[in-house]
Amino acid sequence: MAGEEAEGAERMDTSPELPQTPQRLAAWWDQQVDFNTAFLHHLAQLVPEIYFAEMDPDLEKQEENAQMSIFTPLEWCLFGEDPDICLEKLKHSGAFQLCGKVFKSGETTYSCRDCAIDPTCVLCMDCFQNSAHKNHRYKMHTSTGGGFCDCGDTEAWKTGPFCINHEPGRVGTAKETLHCSLNEVVIAQARKIFPAVIKYIVEMTIWEEEKELPPELQIREKNERYYCVLFNDEHHSYDHVIYSLQRALDCELLEAQLHTTAIDKEGRRAVKAGAYAACQEAKEDIKSHSENVSQHPLHVEVLYSEVMAHQKFALRLGSWMNKIMSYSSDFRQIFCQACLIEEPGSENPCLISRLMLWDAKLYKGARKILHELIFSSFFMEMEYKKLFAMEFVKYYKQLQKEYISDDHDRSISITALSVQMFTVPTLARHLIEEQNVISVITETLLEVLPEYLDRNNKFNFQGYSQDKLGRVYAVICDLKYILISKPTIWTERLRMQFLEGFQSFLKILTCMQGMEEIRRQVGQHIEVDPDWEAAIAIQMQLKNILLMFQEWCACDEDLLLVAYKECHKAVMKCSTGFISSRKTIVQLCGHTLETKSYRVSEDLVSIHLPLSRTLAGLHVRLSRLGAISRLHEFVPFEDFQIEVLVEYPLRCLVLVAQVVAEMWRRNGLSLISQVFYYQDVKCREEMYDKDIIMLQIGASLMEPNKFLLLVLQRYELVDAFNNTVATKDQDMIKQYNTLIEEMLQVLIYIVGERYVPGVGNVSKEEVIMREIIHLLCIEPMPHSAIAKNLPENENNETGLENVISKVAIFKKPGISGHGVYELKEESLKDFNMYFYHYSKTQHSKAEHMQKKRRKQENKDEALPPPPPPDFCPAFNKVINILNCDIMMHILRTIFERAVDTDSNLWTEGMLQMAFHLLALGLLEEKQQLQRAAEEEVTFDFYHKASRLGSSSMNAQNIQMLLEKLKGIPQLEGQKDMVTWILQMFDTVKRLREKSSLIVATISELESIKNDEITHDKEKAERKRKAEAARLHRQKIMAQMSALQRNFIETHRLMYDSTSEMPGKEDSIMEEESPVIGDSSRIALGPKRGPTVTEKEVLTCILCQEEQEVKIENSAMVLSACVQKSTALTQHRGKPIDLSGETLDPLFMDPDLAHGTYTGSCGHVMHAVCWQKYFEAVQLSSQQRIHGDLFDLESGEYLCPLCKSLCNTVIPIIPLQPQKINSENAEALAQLLTLARWIQTVLARISGYNMKHTKGETPTVPVLFNQGMEDSTFEFHSILSFGVQSSVKYSNSIKEMVILFATTIYRIGLKVPPDELDPRVPMMTWSTCAFTVQAIENLLGDEGKPLFGALQNRQHNGLKALMQFALAQRITCPQALIQKHLLRLLSVVLPNLKSEDTPNLLSVDLFHVLVGAVLAFPSLYCDDTVDLQPSSVSSSYNHLYLFHLITMAHMLQILLTIDTGLPLAQVEEDGEEAHSASSFLAEVSQYTSGLTGCGVPGWYLWASLKNGITPYLRCAALFFHYLLGVTPPEDLLTNSTEGEYSALCSYLSLPTNLFLLFQEYWDTARPLLQRWCADPALLNCLKQKSVVVRYPRKRNSLIELPDDYSCLLNQASHFRCPRSADDERKHPVLCLFCGAILCSQNICCQEIVNGEEVGACIFHALHCGAGVCIFLKIRECRVVLVEGKARGCAYPAPYLDEYGETDPGLKRGNPLHLSHERYRKLHTVWQQHCIIEEIARSQETNQMLFGFNWQLL
Ligand SMILES: [Zn+2]
Ligand SMILES: [Zn+2]
Ligand SMILES: [Zn+2]
Ligand SMILES: [Zn+2]
Ligand SMILES: [Zn+2]
Ligand SMILES: [Zn+2]
Ligand SMILES: [Zn+2]
């Protein structure tokens, strides 16, 4: 270190004329006349020194040098005193009230839907958390980088512009304090220094010479050092660059990767240093190599080393400036001023503009720093922001053009700053007024778009480049930003400039009006589908802009009228071709129309008509303002030409009809897509909707008959209604019918659709309500689905929340699925079957739903239109088309054809539409009659409809026709509707008659009323009955479905797996209660109850054949999965010290860190069938492309029935019935005491030892000094208590036993299979014990009884597992088992002197119990005969083993008791408490007082009872499944009180457990002494080294905050532990341990077994033995992973207020933790079902295959 410093000092010495301390340097600078020159001179000398090593710099040293020799002197110079002190003072003088934090990519931003002016106003995490908006309707989003926090900007927020930290006046932020702290001298210095600094930064940044420095910097002798610099671009992939570098530079992969990462991040990097020629050569090499892999060569330059150094430093100086400016507003202002000064006499623009203009030429890293410089200076000072904006607009065109030809992302382009300025309302207004920014933007568009213009001056995007056009959209977006806030005050100048902008905008629309025309293809299919996406995408982009222009125009009447005039002119100009075309005459029913001859099916047609549609929009707004009457002042009547205006929208609708009629199918898919978007929610407001409005305008202004003739003519349907069609061609008829239907629908819309403010008298809210009602009439929907189907305004709002509660009720979600809205009963009446925004499918779905509903309610099935709202006066005349002659003719023609049996020129759908039109007419007349006197109502629909037709053929009126229709059987479905219409006729008739006879009226009115009343009454009664019936039905249904739901939810896994199995519906395991009656329910000892066995006949799921399970039969197996588990660990993340090769798994550590769990889905197969199946899977999967679905190598397969992931099978072995003769047992009891039993066992063991160690004297370990003679105990005495011959299993069973045992061994130890390994039996015992413990833990966790609540799969699995373990011993050499047994027993019988015996505190005794019990029969093995203990002996063996181990466990618990807890509870000392006290006193003697004395007895007893219960529960499960003895009632039900004593009784224990010691005191005392005297144990106690306490803690997933933004907050503070940069990260939270990891990033990858794995996968290996649950914080997604290559997504437990999850935070609603769902996730984990979930999701969701889980 010292050496380095010396070197640094030496370097400094090379400039002798400069003073050496910063302070003195500063003073020296001050003395110079020209600061700029002195400063540059200084830099010229130092910068190349400091930034000498470009290739492999010591960054810390560089920074230190720059700080010491440049920045510190600069700061001294600025402040005139110690800068540290000064800056500290400034810091405390308070921050400015703008936050201005610049967002990095991936950071979370917040916006408030209640208060933000527009959605671009956002807050950073800190500001948001400290603001009032936290409790508003906020949105969370992930930043793409580049924006900044708007906290403190009063123009961005309607309310609450400040967070607590940026509130003015909070910490004395008032300006005075700032001024106080900055004295005149400092300001003067700043004025001197800043211009020099910014000038240097700008000039170096835009320096173009590769080989030379500016003369004032070139003061040293020029060296010959150059760099070959590689630049980032978007053409080349990571791998391309790496490849090219490796080839060109002949470097290692690692080095090439390093370069590439840096280039991607920074934008450029020197990849080679050396002489000019060498660098030039490298440059050419890289270029040519990169050209080989892709078309473009990489961008490489050779740069002079000192240029590089200065450029680097310039950026560093920029960051320094940023820091300095953050301290004071004055600094910022001085800096801005310096930036804005134009050099006198120079052509150059001001410095900041020069930077702006250079932006597109800069590389990424430089741009970022320079943009930040702008953020921290101009954007923090409103006045200068304005000046900057003006400069920006000045060069707008040029900047945009450069951006469009640039290939960097928009987020790092200077043009992306537009949003920061254009959305500020005052700024926008200023820019419009002063710089005509709207025109500037539109002209920019007009200048960049011409390359897409065809010879008619219309756009044509054929063969466009998506990327380039995408960049053009950015300009369109700016238009949106400028218009986003409508001005409230209009000055004359604003009006003028806006109009100018509007006119300029109309020019763009003119290029779009009629663009991309198409002609119907007849004969051949078109060859290539034309591009259509670009035009539609522009339409989408423009939608809200068009709407906003219309809104702005509507701000005042005159403005609107002028705009209307301009727009009208533009439309007419586009229609000249049409006006001059040929004429034709149409005639029908005595009406004549002269029109142009044009056919959509033959001539050119376009779907793009933005001018016509804008005009329609303006017309509606004119109507809303009530100013239609003034229209002729601006557009003379003779110029108006409504037929011309209607023409194009009408063509468009006809085109849609013809597409539906399949007339255009040869024109390919592109047309279908366009028609789809034309009516889709994303476009329809400015396409389809406006076309309908234009037709409504036409209908209101034209003579109705003429209008309808025009419509008929354009639909090419005049002939069809002239009765001249005589075709028999079915296709033609079908085509005609479709066209008629389409036309009728449009007519319905023209008359009936009035839900547009200005067309009808409705409010915006009513419009939205109607949309929602119609969506919910299809089906109940979640919030997001409704929102998706509603148009968004410019603020991305749909207005949904304000109205939804008026029309719908929210139904909360269950444990899965999402919440939905259901329509309120009273809103159903508003249902309109012909709602114009329904698609064909939506229409039929809704009709079906509503008819079904009415049927259920016992109502008629008529669905007449709801009474529509009134038209606005300007649209009033539209209704006249209903009762004109042509309409009557159309309707009558349809009805006549329907009645006529020969005609097929009608459809039921057509008829329905005709009914609908009829109904609309009648409704209209009824409404008018109810409102005014009869003679005033001129709308005479009734009259016209009742008139007879003119020709002889149709000498029937419509009513008569309807009566006839009622009689046609095929039209049964329409009967109710016909009846409704006839009633309506009647009502209108009565209303008509009532006013003509005033006297009669009253009575008749009465009678109408009475009629209606009696009618109503009948109806009501009918309804009531129907309702009652319905309710009853509903109730029953609800009950049933609730039962079913409960059932499914609580037993989902079980249900999934068994639902398909016949006869297995009963979910919960049925205890075999009927047989036992009152026989003993004790499992151990002489009183043990009988084994309850039943004949088991199982069905193989593969061959469906039944077979009885018998030991002599061929095997049946259960599909099963063995997995490593950390579900019970007390020490999460504990590394496995040894590899599987050397691990000794006989003893389990008490922390249960790594266990082996065996689970089963409970499905049974023949072993043979399974083998065949498995082989078949292996074969088929070899051909599968995605072979990695499961790992066949390690025996994985999916259960053929339930598709659970399995990797082995468990053989099913029946329980061997055992019953003991109680008299024999009693007799034996006298003889076989614990002491005697131990001696017998010891004798047996030493006997074996003697055999093995031939000849030597046997050393029988002596436990008791006094007492019995050794000779009593000899080798064979163990046999004298009862033996029987060993069980004989069939070979097939044995085979399966070996197979399964080997699998456990292989997976549990992660070693290659080896059936002869001595550890195979150990692993069998281990998985038995661990599986029991896991299931016991799960039951306890869920508060379920030990036996009553086991799932079928758990029950079957445990049973099979225990019986397998019994049989497994027989497949091994008995000597081996004896060896293991000896080691196990030595834990509790210390005198056995076995090696490696762990001390009592470092072993899990339940594992010892299981192993000892299962291994014990090996002691009965004799050379000649295979023997095993008789039932009686077994029961004693079990009893004594259990008692011994239980005593040891008691000691374990009491030694580890936590005495540190506050002992608040004082209980009466009972008998147990006394025993506890005296016991501990005894123990204390043996442990030399290391155990807690003075702990009250009651506390000891309570702790013991509490601590031992899990062990007792495990033992009960184990012995039950081993022996089949029925457990006591209390263990079957959920009774916590009875449980303990029931356990004791089942396990033959005294309830006061200390009595065990008392009973066996003679034996127990010496044992106790020896246990305690173990030095290892004493050592443990002394050191208090990590002790596991009992009961062990239950694991649960980490606690999550209720509010999701808290998590986001945490993640925002997350820094990758490996890399210092702040590039986008994917923080991922481990839900097991709470660690936050850096996922999907190279920086945190690890190498495991030579393979790269991501941070998550690596973490999972330790944390969850390969299995883990993660939460991707920024995406709000849960992922489950297993092993290296498998994983799946899982819904996160966070829901928004609508009960929906939000993967990817796309919607951004506030999210809150759902405890139910989190609990479910916990259960998935504790049930060891993660692997199963993954397998299932992979099976169903093949999409995720693309994801490389390994790198997560
Ligand atoms: Zn902020
Ligand atoms: Zn703030
Ligand atoms: Zn708010
Ligand atoms: Zn079978
Ligand atoms: Zn299964
Ligand atoms: Zn973890
Ligand atoms: Zn990292």
What attributes does this structure have?
five-stranded antiparallel sheet; 1752 residues; alpha+beta; binds zinc ion; three-stranded antiparallel sheet
SS field, number of helical segments: 65
Overall pLDDT, averaged?
84
Give the overall shape, derived from the CA principal axes: globular
Q: Any idea what the radius of gyration is?
A: 44 Å
Strand fraction: 5-15%
Q: How are the strands ordered across the major sheet?
A: 20-19-23-24-25
N/C terminus separation: 40 Å
Determine the fraction of residues in helical runs and give it as a percent range: 40-55%
Largest sheet: 5 strands, antiparallel
Please mark out the parts with pLDDT under 50 across 5 or more consecutive residues, or reply none. Answer: 1-16, 172-180, 998-1011, 1043-1077, 1255-1260, 1262-1269
Bound molecules: zinc ion
Task: Show the helix and strand layout.
Blueprint: H1 2-13, H2 22-31, H3 35-50, H4 59-79, H5 83-92, E1 108-112, H6 125-129, E2 138-142, H7 175-181, H8 184-205, E3 226-231, H9 238-249, H10 253-266, E4 268-274, H11 276-293, E5 300-304, H12 305-325, H13 329-340, H14 351-358, H15 364-376, H16 382-394, H17 396-405, H18 418-422, H19 425-435, H20 437-448, H21 466-483, H22 492-512, H23 533-553, H24 557-574, H25 576-579, E6 583-588, E7 591-596, H26 610-625, H27 631-634, H28 637-640, H29 642-660, H30 669-679, H31 688-701, H32 704-714, H33 718-721, H34 730-752, H35 764-778, H36 783-788, H37 800-807, E8 808-811, E9 820-823, H38 840-856, H39 885-899, H40 908-931, H41 941-946, H42 958-966, H43 975-996, H44 998-1050, H45 1052-1058, H46 1073-1076, E10 1097-1099, E11 1106-1108, E12 1116-1125, E13 1155-1166, H47 1167-1183, E14 1197-1198, E15 1205-1206, E16 1208-1211, H48 1222-1231, H49 1234-1252, E17 1283-1285, H50 1291-1309, H51 1320-1341, H52 1352-1368, H53 1374-1388, H54 1405-1415, E18 1427-1429, H55 1431-1455, H56 1471-1486, H57 1497-1523, H58 1536-1546, H59 1554-1559, H60 1561-1573, H61 1575-1583, H62 1604-1612, ...
Antiparallel strand pairs: 1-2, 3-4, 3-5, 6-7, 8-9, 10-11, 12-13, 12-16, 14-15, 17-18, 19-20, 19-23, 21-22, 23-24, 24-25, 26-27
Helix pairs in contact: 2-4, 3-4, 3-8, 3-12, 4-8, 8-12, 8-13, 8-14, 9-10, 9-11, 12-15, 16-19, 17-20, 17-21, 20-21, 20-22, 21-23, 22-24, 23-26, 24-26, 26-31, 29-31, 29-34, 31-34, 34-40, 35-37, 35-38, 39-40, 39-42, 40-43, 42-43, 43-44, 44-45, 50-51, 50-52, 51-52, 51-54, 51-57, 53-54, 54-55, ...
Bound molecules: zinc ion (ZN) (7 copies).
The site of one zinc ion has 8 residues, from helix 6.
